[in-house]
Design a protein that fits this description.
There is one protein chain. With 546 residues, the chain is mainly α. The chain has one domain (3-407). It has helices spanning 3-30, 39-42, 54-65, 69-77, 82-110, 116-123, 126-157, 162-180, 186-206, 213-229, 236-261, 280-287, 295-303, 315-338, 343-368, 374-408, 418-435, 438-441, 445-466, 472-502, 506-538; strands at residues 274-275, 278-279. Strands 1-2 form a two-stranded antiparallel sheet.
């Protein structure tokens, strides 16, 4: 496959999905109405609920959903060959990904910006709320711990990166003040901040910053603490908005590199059904999450974006538009890996430097087609990799703070304090990073993430059913993701138990056993939730007496 052909097909899928399928659901099923007041306008509090321009919100949405998943997943999945990976990217986004993101936002709009915990209570049962909140908290804790460790590792191994990441925090705060307090022109602010961000990447190559792993872990957690406690307009939203342009420049630059260089894939279309990661089905579908469909997106769309939309018609360009762009990012990551001079070179790089190394080397080679020096291209790709992680970390901690309040706020009132709830979450994350425990549990991330996607699609189906709207377009994808994810978690838990039996070392044995038990807990929790949820479809309708 030629890389340019792959990119053009991906662009075609995005256009058909956005202007065809998504527009049909928007107009015929959701029937958006801009005359309806949104939660952002009804409950504007300047903290979580704030009406936001769709242009700013698109950047916020994209950088909030596009974490390491669309980069790491396709690069790892290439071991099965490029064909299974590319087919899942295209079909997953077209029939599942944008559906979940868009419908989650519309459901949030129509339900006053309520969280999934409150919605599961209303649509399913009180038990469902408790189980779902517990699941979400563990899932988010795993993300922030794993991403925090990866960010710190990248900052240590690539000292050209920290300057850009530190500058991002400062520039984000300043841009928030310029947009919302000084009321400067949005285009002017964007140009200034993007130029300064690119300059900071260059400065990192001239003046590298060196520090230890623990220092960068604490920095990542402090970055996330600010994102969790400050009003969303003053920190999280502007940082993610500015970050979007850095990532977008990377996407455009790499796409132009594909247009100019257009190498043919060195990777085979298909290798074998079983690779070290696991069998093609079901493991491929939890290896490539973001970029096809991801449960994390539903939390962002429902609990974040839905509280900032100015009008209902903004939901499609913001959520569906961002999802199709993320698919292009995932496709580019696959192209980077598949276009290595030799498939063996990709495998060697993956083993030696991991997906981050494959991404940085691959992206810098495509940027080099534009005349960009390899050293700057590598630094830019590395900064982009860290930005993809750290900008999501701050949102994860924000949602953990909300989940903490919903879980135990009634019994332990002190955790309702935004600082206390946030610090508790950060302490748990620090312990997982510092002890290395996250590495054992991380193997469950793909399964837990896609299980979250199936749970979101279940809630969407139940809401549409309760509103007497078409719901099969969400229900059928939900069944596919549920069956696939449960199967993947079962295989993963089984393998962890085998390792527990055969491996030596106290920490390794404990880590694998704990991970296996968590995997089985996730399976049981999901089955309970789905059993309760499916009962709703078959409840007899109450007769209304005359």
């Amino acid at each position: 496959m030629n890389s340019l052909v792959a990119l053009l097909i991906g662009a075609g899928v995005s256009l058909v999905g956005y202007f065809g399928y998504a527009r049909y659901i928007e107009q015929k099923v959701m029937k958006v109405d801009d005359k309806k007041a949104t939660p952002a306008t009804l409950y504007m509090d300047g903290v979580d609920f704030i009406p936001t321009s769709k242009y700013v919100l698109f950047g916020y949405q994209f950088k909030s959903i596009a974490a390491l998943g669309p980069v790491v997943g396709p690069i790892v999945a290439l071991q099965w060959g490029w064909l299974p990976a590319i087919v899942w990217l295209f079909l997953g986004t077209l029939f599942l990904g944008w559906v979940q993101d868009y419908a989650s936002a519309i459901m949030g709009l129509r339900k006053d910006g309520q969280s999934f915990g409150a919605l599961s209570y209303q649509l399913i049962s009180p038990r469902a709320r408790l189980v779902l909140l517990g699941f979400i908290y563990f899932y988010l804790l795993l993300i922030v711990a794993a991403f925090g460790s990866m960010v710190a590792t990248m900052m240590v191994t690539a000292p050209a990166i920290p300057t850009a990441i530190i500058a991002l925090m400062v520039l984000g705060i300043v841009s928030g003040l310029m947009i919302y307090k000084v009321h400067m022109n949005l285009i002017l602010v964007t140009i200034i901040m993007v130029v300064l961000s690119i300059v900071s990447v260059w400065l990192g190559t001239v003046f590298p910053v060196k520090a230890g792993f623990l220092i960068w872990v604490l920095y990542g957690l402090f970055f996330s603490y600010l994102g969790a406690v400050l009003p969303i307009w003053s920190y999280t939203q502007p940082i993610n908005y500015i970050s979007f342009y850095l990532v977008f420049i990377g996407i455009v630059g790499a796409s132009l590199g594909v247009l100019i260089g257009h190498p043919t894939f060195s990777a085979p279309a298909f290798t074998t059904f079983n690779i070290p990661v696991g069998p093609l089905w079901p493991i491929l579908f939890v290896t490539i999450a973001c970029g096809a469909v991801s449960g994390w997106h539903s939390l962002v769309s429902s609990s974040g974006t839905a509280r900032q939309l100015e009008k209902e018609s903004d939901a499609r360009p913001v959520t569906a538009g961002a999802m199709f762009l993320e698919m292009i990012l995932g496709l580019l990551a696959l192209i980077f890996a598949a276009s290595f001079p030799a498939f063996g070179g990709y495998l060697a790089k993956l083993k030696a430097a991991g997906p981050a190394g494959v991404f940085a080397e691959g992206m810098s080679s495509f940027l080099n087609h534009l005349g960009i020096p390899v050293a700057f291209g590598t630094a830019f790709a590395g900064a982009m990799f860290v930005i993809l992680a750290i900008t999501v970390m701050q949102l994860v901690v924000r949602f953990m703070r909300i989940a903490t309040t919903e879980l135990v706020g009634d019994h332990i009132p002190i955790v309702r304090n935004v600082h206390i709830g946030t610090i508790i979450s950060l302490v748990f994350a620090f312990l997982l990073i510092y002890t290395g425990t996250w590495q054992y549990i991380w193997v469950l991330f793909g399964g837990s993430n896609q299980l979250m996607a199936s749970l979101a699609l279940l809630l969407i189906s139940l809401w549409l059913f309760s509103e007497k709207k078409q719901f099969m377009f969400a229900f059928i994808p939900m069944l596919f993701m549920f069956i696939t994810t449960i199967s993947a978690l079962f295989l993963t838990s089984r393998d962890l138990l085998k390792k527990f039996i055969n491996i030596t070392g106290v920490q390794a044995k404990a880590g694998n056993l704990i991970s296996a038990l968590i995997g089985m807990f996730l399976i049981v929790a999901a089955v309970l939730l789905f059993a309760d949820g499916l009962k709703v479809f078959f409840k007899p309708k109450k007769k209304v007496e005359a």
